Amino acid sequence: MAVVITRLCQDCVDGACVDMCPCEAIVEHRPDGRASELPNQLFVDPELCITCNACIPECPWEAIYDEGDVPKAFASDIALNRRAFEKSAEYHVPASKLLRGASSEEVEQNHAKWLPSVT
Fold first, then answer.
1. In the sheet that 92-94 helps form, which strands lie side by side, from edge to edge?
2. Is the dihedral angle over the CA atoms 9, 94, 97, 48 positive or is it negative?
3. Which residues, 6+ apart, have CB-to-CB distance to 116 below 8 Å?
4. pTM of the full predicted structure?
5. pLDDT of 90 over the 60 cut
6. Residue 91 scores a pLDDT above 60
7. Torsion angle defined by CA atoms of residues 40, 113, 100 and 14, in that order, rounded to the nearest 10 degrees
8. Nearest to 55 by CA among 4, 89, 111
9. Phi and psi dihedrals of 21, rounded to 5?
10. What topology does CATH give the domain 3-114?
11. Rounded-to-integer distance, Cα 112 and Cα 119, Å
């Protein structure tokens, strides 16, 4: 079992979790100059993840969960993370360190975007 980065990361890609990962298991999926069918977010390589959960509290977007704790609303994100790693490994690059932080208001707006009934 690994941790899963949910859609709460889409287009946010903060990167605070990257520095905490001792295995460099958090990656971006960027096909060489081509559009990706995957969303613009970070993913956890299940082969590299040791489930230390160090990344979970570091995510300002509250987007990372232990696979067994992923909320039902984000259940499809487990399969999305797996699909990201069915693609060629050459597309996976260590996540860039885009440490920009997030305000509590931005986090609330992001939650409302994906879970309108939760605010």
1. 42-44, 26-29, 92-94
2. positive
3. none
4. 0.73
5. no
6. no
7. -40
8. 4
9. -80, 115
10. Alpha-Beta Plaits (3.30.70)
11. 6
